[in-house]
Amino acid sequence: MAQRVLVVEDEEDIAFPLVRTLEREGYDVEWVESGQKALDTLASLPELVILDLGLPDIDGLEVCRRAREAGYTGAIMIVTARAGELDRVVGLDYGADDYLAKPFGLAELQARVRALLRRTSSPQTAGVDEASPDGVRIDVEARRVYAGTEEVPLTGKEFEVLSILAANRDKVVSRGRLMADVWDENWYGSTKTLDVTIGRLRQKLESVGVTDRVVAVRGVGFRLEGGPADA
């Protein structure tokens, strides 16, 4: 079955070439021109959303935030003329997985789409990580994370970071490795994107009361520690 891509763009001269290009790549593409239509369409669970920020009804950042709060866990790529680093960080903080500044080449967009879909549809390791008692449990094949019986909704990048840290539990994983494994060679943004992703991941784990902690090792990277503090 073809992977589904939702294009959210109000300018026809931008949307039409995007849709044609993606359809030629074999994707099942749907196009909407407003934020509300995008949120309504997410019920069909597309694998990827290509989201413009300058929408006529709801700002794209708000669409991204509402989508994540509603439990959408597919990939979100923001495409916008707002190219500043602050806007990139804010977009990622709202739950986006990638950020492409206009104007952009269709070849670059295709490469990023392939990379996002590859990373969100193919497990990096196999099986289920049993973790520690009261810790997170990762079903890598299903790309789902649980705290007890409660599912923890993570974005694609958050899941990938956690999977790598869990596979190396109690060991330090360097920033360079995380950037190389989770983001690809087409990513030219700030490495602050990793810190933003780690920050969101920590908040989500803490919100469900798990004992696993993502610990920063200054100047090196991050480590997932499991178990109670006195264990």
Automatic annotation (TrEMBL):
UniProt cross-references to PROSITE patterns, sorted A to Z: OMPR_PHOB, RESPONSE_REGULATORY
Keywords tagged on the record: DNA-binding, Phosphoprotein, Two-component regulatory system
InterPro entries: CheY-like_superfamily, OmpR/PhoB-type_DNA-bd, Sig_transdc_resp-reg_receiver, WalR-like, WH-like_DNA-bd_sf
Pfam families, sorted: Response_reg, Trans_reg_C
Name this protein carries in UniProt: Response regulator transcription factor
Organism, as annotated: Nocardioides hankookensis
Source species taxonomy: Bacteria, Bacillati, Actinomycetota, Actinomycetes, Propionibacteriales
CDD domains on file: trans_reg_C (cd00383)
SMART domains (alphabetical): REC, Trans_reg_C
Domain annotation Response regulatory: ranges: 4-117
